Amino acid sequence: MSGKRKVIEGVSISSGIVLGTSFVVLPGDFHVTKTPVPVSRVTAETDALDQAIEATIEELRQMRASALRKAGGPVAKIFDAQLLIAGDYEFLKSVKNRIRSDKRNAAFVYNQAISEATAPLKQSSDHYLSQMAIDIEAVASKVLSHLCGSETKLRKLPPNTIVVSRVITPNDIIAYREMKAVGFVAGEGGTDSHMALIARSFTLPVVLARDDLKAIPNSCRLIVDGTSGEIIVSPTSEEWSEYQRRRKRQGPTLLKRIRKLKVFPPVTTDGREIGIAANLSLPGPADDLLAEQQIPVGLYRTEFLCLAHRKMPDEETQYQYYSAIAQKFAPAPVTLRVFDLGYDKLSPESNWPTEDNPALGWRGIRALLDMSTVFKTQIRAILRASTRRNLRIMLPMISDRSEIDRARRLISQVRLGLRRKGIDHDSDIKIGIMIEVPSAAMTAATLIKRADFVSLGTNDLTQYVLAADRGNRRVAGLYNPLHPAVLSMVRMVVDACHDDGVPVAVCGELAGEILAVPLLIGMGIDTLSMSPNRIVDVCRTIKTIDSTVMRHMTRSILAAESPNALMDRLYDLEAAQNNRQIKT
């Protein structure tokens, strides 16, 4: 089916490029009717509900097993929550009572009860209450499909199918993946949602289109760029060919090309070795490959443990998790960022206080220092898991040196406790800081004296420098990590680190941006840590760069008076590099 060409600027949820045909899933594929039930059939209706619940629980158990096998325990835990919802005895008891008292069919009463339960959750601005509503609706959809006799049996989709749906649940990601879907466009969700978490674990591209979802017809040609967040409906032949080329260079299958990297870490044409590392959040298909190639982990986002468990995990759970990561990647270093939590990242059970502006609120190291028990529990688990001497600790959202001092004191207390008990651990474990707020960048010369290493979190730094939330579509256009103000701040931090002999890395999306790589190397960045599917392209780019030449060019590029002028200079630089490659 052909349609009118349209470009939708969505929000990237999971990176990667896919080209295919849209498969629009309409809400309410099953029809729930309101049917009076005679007294003689009431028991049959409650029995039907029991059977539907049993079938749903069995289905969820199978999905949990699949998730456990393919993505590991933390992802599988998401289905534990849905299993609890499905088997909620008190809720089902109330539904059965209503079936008996109202003398209505089970599907109608159950659907009505679910609507009543989720309505207040869906109206809440709290991220986790919204996520709970999605989990409940995902379970209810399965129960109703069994009750209405329209079970969504797994079926094979046509090749290169891209699923388009207002709500895409974790179950949907796994089910459609089994049906060979290659990507997703969602109308609801967020970068920290369970759906996003699972999609990234399976390296499936997802873009959030919100209201523009209605502009995507069924069975049309579709390009979904999960890296830029762009969706092209009914693209031209030229666009189709161009994105085929891009996918070939950047697609998730490139993970396999990591095995073919002959020189790692990459070396510039003038002999400078550049460190390359991966950003990870949860176990996924890339982990084994990265570990096999001895590629370090520059940023492991441990807060995803809390997301997966929907609560703070205990010390033993954390120890098992960190120990497995350390063992898998040893001897390559693994940098564990301690919980970077805000109220928008925890479940309601955590009693985290609601904040009007969580990005500027109680999060990251600020929260951990106030919750010293939580912080010390995590540190104890990390230190116990550090016996292979390849783990490092990174402190997020540092804005003042007193935060580093307090964190170090707490870490020392935990070390002392382990030493007294004779528990083996890395007593010289490296402690680094993330520089991602302007105050830290401006005072970097002071902060780095208290750090073993520094990592620039350019995603948040860009947000704070430009006062633009990249997840807010009204201001997302202002978010630009290649803005001269952001890059000047990066340069400032790099210079301060090198003056003190402290290694500095970039671990934001900027590290994997091909256009920015020559400039970052010209600034003197020691390590680039990025999404795994960017590693091959960045390594190939580095091998074409003369770091000495770039060092001299950096000052003039950063002197650009506007983002557009700076971009023009980077495009000119890229063209010059490509010409040199062609000639050689």
Tell the overall outline: globular
Specify Rg, calculated over alpha carbons: 25 Å
Terminal residue distance: 45 Å
The structure class reads: alpha/beta
Helix content: 40-55%
Mean pLDDT: 85
Biggest β-sheet: strands ordered side by side in the sheet: 1-8-7-3-4-5-6-2
Task: Sketch the major β-sheet.
Answer: 8 strands, mixed
Low-pLDDT residue spans: none
Strand proportion:
5-15%
Number of helices: 22
Strand runs, count: 16
Would you write up a description of this structure?
The strands form two sheets. Strands 1-8-7-3-4-5-6-2 form an eight-stranded mixed β-sheet. It starts with 5 loop residues before the first strand and ends with a helix. Helix 14 links the parallel strand 12 and strand 13. It contains 22 helices and 16 strands. It has 584 residues and is of the alpha/beta class. The chain is 48% helix and 13% strand.
Topology:
Layout: E1 6-9, E2 11-14, E3 17-25, H1 39-71, H2 73-86, H3 89-102, H4 106-123, H5 127-147, E4 161-165, H6 170-178, E5 183-186, H7 194-201, E6 206-208, E7 221-225, E8 230-233, H8 237-250, E9 275-280, H9 286-292, E10 297-301, H10 303-309, H11 315-329, E11 334-337, H12 364-370, H13 372-384, E12 391-395, H14 401-420, E13 431-435, H15 438-442, H16 444-447, E14 453-456, H17 458-466, H18 484-499, E15 504-506, H19 517-523, E16 527-530, H20 535-542, H21 547-558, H22 563-583
Parallel strand pairs: 3-4, 4-5, 5-6, 9-10, 9-16, 10-11, 11-12, 12-13, 13-14, 14-15, 15-16
Antiparallel strand pairs: 1-8, 2-6, 3-7, 7-8
Helix pairs in contact: 1-2, 1-5, 2-5, 2-10, 3-4, 4-5, 6-7, 11-13, 13-14, 19-21
